[in-house]
Structures are given as C-alpha cells and as structure tokens.
Amino acid sequence: MEKNFWLERWEREEIGFHQNEINPYLLQYWQALSPAPGTQVFVPLCGKSRDMMWLRKQGHPVLGVEISATAVQAFFNENGYTPHHTSSENFEHYAADNIRIMCGDFFELTQEKLTEVKAVYDRASLIALPPEMRERYVSHLVSILPPATQILLVSFDYPQSEMSGPPFAVSTEEVESLYRGRANIRRLAQHDVLAQNPRFKDRGLSRLQENIFLITLN
Ligand SMILES: C[S@@+](CC[C@H](N)C(=O)[O-])C[C@H]1O[C@@H](n2cnc3c(N)ncnc32)[C@H](O)[C@@H]1O
Question: Separation of 129 CA from ligand 1 center, angstroms?
Fold first, then answer.
C-alpha cells in the first residue's frame, strides 16, 4: 500500500475504520496484558484513534506513529489538546499530556525510539497492509520493540475472495505464521461481527470475524 493511498484517504475523509467509541475489545482484553501503570504503550499506525485517550486514562504514557499529518492534527484538536511540536530526522513529533505521536513512516522507526515501551496496542494495522507488506511490518515491529513486549492485536478475518482490501483479511493461521519463532501467540477470542457491520455485508461478505490475540515477544 503506497503512502499516498493513506494520505489521500485522510484528505478525502474516507476513514470508515475510525471509531468514535473506545474499542470494546480493548476494554475487555487489555487486562490480559496488565502492564503496570506508568509504562509506555506503543500504538503503531494509530490514526486518530480515541483508544489512545483510554490508554492514557489507564495511566500509560502513549507513543503513536502515523503517516498522515491530517490524522495527527485531528487527534489533538478533537481531544482538546494543543500539542508541542518538534522535528527530528524522519519524523514530526507532536506531544501533549504524555501522548506523543510521531508523524512519519512506521518503517523509518528505529529501536532507540521505543526503549521504554512495554506493551503495544495494535488495531487495524495488519489489515491495512497487503499480504507482501505484512511480513515486512511484523519483521520491523519485532526488530524495534524491546524483548518480552506484550502486544494486544485486534484483527479482521473474512473470505478474501469475497472482497478486495483494505481492510484485508488476516487469518489466525497467518498471524501465527507471521509471529512464529518470534513470540508466544495466544488467541484470546473470536467474535462474529458481520451483523454489526452492514457496510461489509453490502459489499458481499458472508463471514466477518474479529480476532483478538495476546502476543508476547521472545
Ligand atoms: C486502518 S487505519 C487504522 C488506524 C487506527 N489504528 C485505528 O484503529 O483507528 C491504518 C492507519 O495507518 C496509517 N498508515 C498506513 N501506512 C503507514 C505507515 N507506513 N506509517 C505510518 N502510518 C501508516 C494510515 O494513515 C491509517 O491511519
């Protein structure tokens, strides 16, 4: 997926993935990770997700990365913040109330930026990427995170032949294969969600599931 694809989607406000409510699986399953309050949580490909506000309320400093400046500005504006802005080599940094979003390309992120991270909240990142980029995404993520980091992964699965992505279908087998040898992978839950997503039913899907994983890096 080219960067311009996402930049244009934000410019045109085609952001059907954005949720105004806090993600129910974050609320339900975050306790499975239980990182101590005060430990930093990384949110890759964060958009303007309000889930970052919830994580902050749990006492976590939050670090996000997002390619679209429109999304980053919207996050801070819509939540009533005036962020402090600084620049570094590949990123524009915006920070307020211990929520820092690095505006730039996830694939340019380096290990030094994530040394304090203990947990990751990853919703709708893998499904945003075509198959050939998902392996690259996981390899890079694992290479920049500290050992033993816990990841709460929320992902979609459906028969890929019934609809073209994004969102792409990502099966449990694929998640296991992507993280095999790099982490302990536990599927915490699987929910049928087609009935609650009429826009995908209208696009011809016969099955839609959300899978929630707890992934603990080696
Ligand atoms: C499907 S959305 C999910 C957003 C967010 N996680 C949520 O739950 O609302 C994927 C996001 O990834 C961003 N993105 C795509 N490629 C990226 C990259 N290489 N680096 C940083 N962000 C990227 C897009 O702009 C978009 O906001």
Answer: 9
Q: Looking at ligand 1, which atom is closest to the CA of residue 48?
A: 9
Strands 209-217 and 92-96: what pairing?
unpaired
Ligand 1 environment, Cβ below 6 A: 6, 17-18, 45-47, 49, 65-68, 71, 105-107, 123-125, 128
| Amino acid letter, 184 | N
* Other beta carbons less than 10 A from residue 107's beta carbon: 15
- pLDDT tens, position by position, 137-175: 999 999 999 999 999 999 999 999 999 989 999 999 999
pLDDT in tens, 110-127: 999 999 999 999 999 999
